[in-house]
Amino acid sequence: MTGLSSAFLLVSNLARSVHFYRELLGRSPASEDMRHARFELGPISLTIHEDLTPAEVSVWKIDPEPERRGWGAYLTFLTDDLEETYRRLVGIGAEILTTPNVTPWGTRTFTTKDPDGYLLELCQRG
């Protein structure tokens, strides 16, 4: 094992999610088509993909449960300006779970959800 190359999120509304992540990340997707958008984040990419078709589910041998999006995992994004990121997400109507605060280990952080309910932690190291 040499590292993590990407995170892949299935979403119910691609355009809504691309808008959200474009605002969150402050950049446009590196690639985008009618079914997906891929954002480059250093050595890791974040792919947002429209829900799979029944044929794709069969080919990939997976059984996604769309009603359980976001449960059991969350993504942590680093930022150089936590307050600006917070203001930007509030400005687009994101569901903010916790306001910016300082953890006992000195990291400034807040949590939010993306449009499909995926949990996101935004942090700025102290």
What are its keywords?
single chain; 126 residues; alpha/beta; 2,3-Dihydroxybiphenyl 1,2-Dioxygenase, domain 1; four-stranded mixed β-sheet; 8 strands; 23% helix; globular
What fraction, in percent, of the residue positions are helical? 10-25%
Q: Specify the oligomeric state.
A: single chain
Q: Major sheet: order of its strands?
A: 1-4-3-2
Question: Mind telling me the C-alpha Rg?
Answer: 15 Å
CATH superfamily: 2,3-Dihydroxybiphenyl 1,2-Dioxygenase, domain 1
N- and C-termini, Cα separation? 29 Å
Whole-number mean pLDDT: 89
Shape: globular
Order of helices and strands: EHEEEHEHEEE
> Into how many domains do the coordinates divide?
1
User: β content, as a range?
Assistant: 35-45%
**Count of beta strands:** 8
- Using the 3D structure, state the CATH architecture: Roll
What is the number of helical segments per DSSP (H or I, 4+ residues)?
Answer: 3
Largest pleated sheet: 4 strands, mixed
Spans of at least 5 consecutive residues whose pLDDT stays below 50 are: none
Question: What CATH first level would be assigned?
Answer: Alpha Beta
What secondary-structure arrangement, pairings included, does this model have?
Blueprint: E1 6-11, H1 14-25, E2 31-32, E3 36-41, E4 44-50, H2 54-60, E5 74-78, H3 82-91, E6 95-102, E7 108-113, E8 119-124
Parallel strand pairs: 1-4, 5-8
Antiparallel strand pairs: 2-3, 3-4, 6-7, 7-8
